[in-house]
Specification:
The chain has 165 residues and is of the alpha/beta class. The protein has five helices and six strands. Helix 3 (97-116) links the parallel strand 3 and strand 4 (120-127). It starts with 23 loop residues before the first strand and ends with a helix.
Amino acid sequence: MATQLKSLSDYTGKNIVDMAGKRFAIIVSEWNEEVTNALHSGAVGTLLSHGVAKENILTGSVPGSYELTLAAQWAAEKERVDAIICIGVVIQGETKHFDFICDAVAQGIKDVNLKYGKPVVFGVLTTNTLQQALDRAGGKHGNKGDEAAITAIKMLGLKSGLEEL
């Protein structure tokens, strides 16, 4: 993952295949819009560059990161959606609210993955400061939205390969 020496936007590996005909839902938190809009742009750009048609990228917004899981479940219930990308940011504050939200969102996204057997990607930044979030939303560490999109692509590629077994 992100280090001072690695950009999140650099990716390589297996299961990167053309995604023409695949449909993606991107659920974006409205909280910290400066960051989440940049992450969303990164994810959309990556999907488009891998053959996803613009009309096959469906975007919905939720008030905050906590609401990502229910919206992801609604998207996963749709047979025509192949993968869901959840985008949000939770920045450490002075209370334990950060811990509760991060845990609930991570567990909720994992649960939707397993319940529906579809990639539901955790594209949620959990940072100590706004600057750390900006650094990962198109700043010096690249764009975590790119990484979330390529994760969805790789998981669909893996699923396709496993179906051939």
